[in-house]
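Human: We require from you a protein record containing the residue sequence and its fold in token form, and nothing else.

Assistant:
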Amino acid sequence: MAAVLLTILKILGITLLVLFGIILTVVLLLLFVPIRYKIRAHRKTEDERPVAADIKVTYLAHIVNAAFSYPEAAYLRVRVFCFTIYRSDTKKVSKDSSDEEKMSTHSGKEADDNKENAEKDRQEKKGDRAESSIKEVNSELVQDQTEVKQTGPDKESAEAEDYSQEDGNFLNKIIGFFRKIWSVLKNIRYTISRICDKIKDIVNNIRYYVEILKSDRFDRGWKVCKSQLGLLFKMLRPRKFTGELLIGTGDPASTGQVMAAYGILYPLLGNHIEVTPDFERQIVEGSLFMKGRITIFGLIKCAWIIYFNKDIRELIKLFKREAV
């Protein structure tokens, strides 16, 4: 019985070790296998489409790859194990077909609804006409009754009351006018005080952030960010970078100025980009090729160091004013 239990435990241990080894290898592959990219671009004025570009990104020995080309077949394609997961041009076609089907189904429903709504509108219009005619008759009767009431000796008293009401309305208008002027003056005073308060708040905020920028904590955090961003730029920059450029502005003097700027940048670009001047024509042609790689581990490492740095975390809180 004990031997059977030992054999079962051995089998379980071996399977667990195998699974752990598989998971570990997959994680290491995902972290340390680089993402490779290639970029090709050229510009030729003689072609029908002068600008063309081709971008390819591969990962895990071309198991995952993405491609983008312009302008012959301007689409983005993503593949995994030769199976297309995403393609921008096919997605648009499927969307258009589904929209057409929806429009066709809705059109039939809308036609039936329109018929029913038309009949309802006709009935409602008939009812509205009858009600409007009744209202007109009633309004005429009311006007006749008021005219009859106003005739006679009461008419003079009504006119006197109207004159007194007009005088009272005139005085009320004058008082309301002066009240409006007083309220406007009060509002001007309040607005000026609010503007002054806002200016004080802005000045205090500027002083607060200037003090943060002058602090030693900001200097330490900036050094960490600067070093990590420099490493990230080194990882992202292409390992191979070549290009050719034919440039001419149509003016020999300005073309010479462009070449003088190229001479300043020659220590950085001389081994990678070759520039040929054309002092007679106005032309810009050339080609470009880039190839590089980056690992996910490098990105995670830079993000980890920046995010979990104490000084940077405190600076984030200070900029958000959470630590105040």
Notes: The longest helix spans residues 88-150. The chain has three domains: 90-151, 152-214, 216-320. The chain has eight helices and eight strands.
